[in-house]
Amino acid sequence: MRTVGHLLSRPVAIGTALVLVMLIAGFVGWRLTGGGEYVAPTPSAAPTVRADTVAGRDSLEELVAGVRDGAKPEGKGAAAVATRNADAIGIEGLSARYVAESGNVDEDGSWTADVDMSWRAPGDPTLSEELKVGFDGDGEITGFSADEGTRMPLWLSGPVEVRRTGSTLVVVQASAEQADRYAELAASAVKQVRTVIGWDRPRLVLEVPASGLDSALGAQPSTYSSVAAVTATVDGSSTAGSPLHVWVNQDVIGDLDSPGAQVVITHEAVHAATAAPTNPHRPMWLVEGYADYVALRDTTLPLSKTAGQILAQVREDGPPKHLPGKAEFNTRSEHFGAEYEAAWLACVVLAEAGGQEALVDLYEQTGRGVPLERALRASFGFGVDELTARWRTHLSDSAR
């Protein structure tokens, strides 16, 4: 009793006493009921959702078989769309190897996996990419995508319209009417190029994504946001002889009228005909200027339309002191567009000085590795300094 009375007589110790009493009571109760060693209860775990990888692999095998057999399945599912696209384009040799899950499985059982895929389009080498493939809870394919830096094949990214002739193949993510328009642009481009260049076995492939070019080319976001079209190897290499395709940016070319769009496609067709992206010898101004020379050869548009940007710069700052170099053709350049116009006018100066055949000869010689100075003197009788002087004078006179 003293102890209790002592505790109660000191308010500060009341809480401690109560806790002590409760602990003793608990101990006594445990002893009286004969309990053994105390074990905390195990919390119940939420059920684990697992990916049905067997069904996913089966779906990939069905896709491969469908493409191999030329199937044309009904429906709007990603696998059905891809199979129909493959048949329309002529995709062959498809393989799809399931690698591993990518990320967590959702509560509904859907998931994404990394899949090594290989395929071959007519006239192209076998291409391989590790792509992301989405699956639903039943293992059915829901879509295809690619990590940044990986090229996303157009035939796997949604429905396409396909148009082909003996010399062109056009694959478009757009309406049938728009596909017809791009097919006409491609056919006209081949004809225009062949009036200037000896393109004996023309093959022009246009790929037109629904929006932008960055995903299709495996580029950083916004790299090609201002570019109307790009000619590049199908495998992203710079190896000579690699097949070339032209990727068209609908977000840019869609704002152009028919003559403007034709200039863009013909310009890129020149690059394809001369394997420009894989030739390291020619100066950039000649590569781009020559392509515009062919594309604008029969135009009746005024200089205010075809060279308005560079002439505005000349009026403000005077003519450039040198022909545009590789750095000036950066897609993020402040004056992107003016450089192309300046390069085109350099080729116009050359054609006026020595004729079109001399310009074509210069382009071919430099492509074979002949130094620019020597090739200029062989075709025109003057070198780079004289060309630069004539070009600057032409710019100044045109800007008046």
UniProtKB/TrEMBL annotation:
Transmembrane domains' residue ranges: 12-32
Q: Which UniProt keywords apply?
A: Membrane, Transmembrane, Transmembrane helix
**Protein name stated in the entry:** Peptidase MA superfamily protein
Give the organism the record lists. Nocardioides albertanoniae
